[in-house]
Design brief:
The protein contains 8 helices and 2 strands; from the N terminus they run H-H-H-H-E-E-H-H-H-H. It is mostly helical and 307 residues long. Helix 1 crosses helix 2 and helix 5 packs antiparallel against helix 6.
Length: 307
């Protein structure tokens, strides 16, 4: 087993071999070696120095080995800690990915008397990304259409999409809107009322910014209770106005530009209303000026008879 020193030999001082304490030893050595006591002192001092220098070399090597051993232990401990941290993170990530079921709350509501409406995956994906969603998607007709489409599109049908500069698979029915979608300007007033109520509930459930929810709710209320509702074609004008302005609001949000949905812009509303009147007037003139078509039994052709 290699010699292991407990103390640094460089701190030791050479004994004074010329002191009275070493007088007897000096005498014996001098007599035995037939040398003077001064030579004995020099020899003993040199021998002690050589031995102490050897111990110093052993101490230096011992310290270097101890340093390497400590570094190796620290490296192993750090690697073990890193591995334990990675395992803990992987376990936490796996735990987060596990489907979780909440504990039942006895204070919760009873079974609803009606089936809850569910918009299409396309509409829900738009809501999750704060995008523009036509109100028809949240209406009774839109939700019924979504259920019908889910029955006809297999759940195993996936398509490619780009997410965060990566290609990923996504269900096909989340890529496109229904072919039966009705634009906001062509809705019935009942579709508008039901659709905007449900849309507000959906954006609340998906945690849209409270300020945006409040602004959109106030905008819909302004449309719903406008005095234009009592005018001929007033609801049609309001639907046209709502469709255009809400779309512009979303476009401004996408460009990170300020756009406040505040009440009705009366000047723009009057223009919309006037355009509908003009269209109705032009339609009436066209109907009056076009000669009627009278059917005569002559093959299958319709012959226009001029008055």
């Amino acid at each position: 087993m290699a010699l292991r020193l407990k103390y640094d030999p460089s701190h030791k001082r050479c004994p004074n071999f010329g002191s009275p304490a070493f007088a007897q030893a000096r005498g014996h050595i001098a007599a035995a070696a037939d040398i003077t006591q001064e030579q004995v002192i020099e020899d003993l001092t040199a021998q002690w120095t050589v031995e102490n220098d050897g111990r110093k070399a052993i101490w230096v090597a011992q310290q270097a080995q101890d340093h390497l051993a400590r570094e190796e232990e620290e490296q192993q401990a750090g690697e073990a800690a890193r591995q334990a941290r990675l395992e803990a993170e992987e376990a936490a990530e796996a735990e987060c990915k596990k489907p979780k079921m909440k504990e039942p709350d006895p204070r919760g509501p009873d079974v609803p008397t009606r089936n809850a409406p569910h918009p299409s995956p396309w509409a829900l994906n738009k809501i999750k990304t704060h995008g523009y969603v036509p109100l028809w998607c949240a209406s009774d007709e839109g939700c019924a259409d979504a259920i019908l489409n889910q029955r006809t599109v297999t759940e195993d049908a996936y398509g490619l999409t780009k997410v965060d500069n990566m290609v990923a698979f996504r269900p096909v029915d989340s890529f496109r809107a229904s072919r039966n979608l009705i634009a906001d300007e062509n809705l019935t007033w009942r579709m508008f009322e039901i659709g905007h109520y449900r849309l507000l509930n959906l954006i609340k459930a998906h945690h849209w910014p409270p300020g945006n929810i409040k602004m959109l709710s106030s905008f819909f209320a302004t449309i719903q209770y406008s005095e234009y509702c009592s005018r001929p074609n007033g609801e049609c004008a309001l639907l046209l106005y709502q469709a255009a302005v809400r779309r512009e609001w979303h476009d401004a949000l996408d460009r990170d530009e300020p756009f406040v949905l505040r009440g009705l812009n009366e000047e723009r509303m009057r223009e919309v209303y006037a355009s509908i009147r003009d269209e109705e007037h032009a339609k009436a003139i066209a109907e009056v000026s076009t000669p009627p078509l009278r059917a005569h039994t002559k093959g299958t052709k319709l012959i226009q008879v001029l008055p």
